[in-house]
Amino acid sequence: MNQDTIAAISTAVGEGGIAVIRVSGPDAVRESAKLFRSKSNITDAISHTVHYGHIVDPVTGDIVEEIILTLMRGPRSFTAEDVVEISTHGGVVAVKRVLELLLRAGGIRIAEPGEFTKRAFLNGRIDLTQAEAVIDLIRSKSDRAFSIAMKQSEGALSKKVKSLRHTLIETLAHIEVNIDYPEHDVADLTSAFIKEHCLEASSEINRLLKSAREGKILREGIVTAIVGRPNVGKSSLLNALVQENKAIVTDIPGTTRDVIEEYVTVGGIPLRLLDTAGIRETSDVVERIGVERSRSALEGADLILFMLNVNEPLHEDDRLLMEQLRNRQVVILLNKTDLPVNLEVAELESIFDAQSIVRLSVLEEKGLDVLEGVISRMFFNGELESVDLTYVSNVRHITLLGHALQSLTDAVEAVDIGIPIDIVQIDVRTAWELLGELIGDSVSESLLDQIFSQFCLGK
Questions:
Q1: What is the CA radius of gyration of the chain?
Q2: Are 115 and 452 spatial neighbours (Cβ–Cβ below 8 Å)?
Q3: Are the CB atoms for 198 and 425 separated by under 8 Å?
Q4: What is residue 61's three-state secondary structure?
Q5: Residues 69, 38: Cα–Cα separation, whole Å
Q6: What is the pLDDT of residues 326-351, one digit of tens each?
Q7: What would the pLDDT profile of 134-190 be if each residue is shown by its tens digit?
Q8: Residues β-bridged to residue 24
């Protein structure tokens, strides 16, 4: 257990209904009681109780703030330590004054980013995959991503990994028996046992890794660049998807001069939308900079929405862009279908899949549902919903699972070519240890610092 007591503001900075300060550690209750004035005595209060009162400056005796104090005694708390949560009026001044009084006493220090969650892990309340799921919950960009993170925070991935480790530890025990008692001469049976269990574990790891691409998309979103010549409706599409006037829309070509970024959920899939400046040759210095930034965004995009006007024939700038988009994940958007058609679609179909060509009218908000379906087919084979929400999306998890799979593959190959089982044991144990690192059974302090430094202060 940690010997020091920490505190931090756990709500976002700014105006709101309430703000919350979290205090955790052995002195959380005692130090908070020094400032708290109420009819109830929180020092003797039972766990999971709520108390109304005031925070008072112990030096001047002045009332600083009217608060609600929630008391949770360890181990029945988030950190498995004594925890006090002080709810103040929302606003920068009120919560800051209370926090300063807590820190001034000297028995409490300011928490580091992610330190509350780190303590929950170190105190054994959650494992490392559950701890990492906390940040995924905070950063979720869609309902689906939130549901997956919630499942992981409840231990869905942990249970699968622990089951795999159990299979491998049984295998290792079987090998140990064979090594310790060679007189029983069961090497052939042991080899068959090793292969069966390694293949079983490999199959489950493969299934988890197959979800990695979808999981990463749901976790981070698809980087989606909206490109095309000026005035084809790129900014109007962004506004329609976001349901807000984020980008300036005019009849003047070249209105957008920089890349505008917004997150939006389309058909349950989070998209990181990049509205780019119209790509064309221009002598305008500022617009030229915008065009270069558009080309840069285009290079880093996972998905490209290439917009064209159906009432205009293909321009040379369009053809140059089409050549750049060969072999990329592209959806062709034929906009302004409310106007007469002057575009030759056959030329587009000669380069791009006809199923990736969508006709729409952003002005009339027609065809956006078709766009959703095309994106879903591209990235999820049209089947986003699944009963099993155990997706692997974290790069660290993917890497460790990949290494564990390779070790098991090596073990199976070693069995097949008749390598002694005491040598095969090394690969099986390596896989078991890698899976242990995934859930945090064996992990370095530097890695923990790296993981929890990504968290916000107060979490």
A1: 29
A2: yes
A3: no
A4: coil
A5: 10
A6: 878 888 888 888 888 888 788 888 88
A7: 888 887 777 777 877 888 888 888 899 999 999 999 888 888 877 766 555 555 567
A8: 6, 83
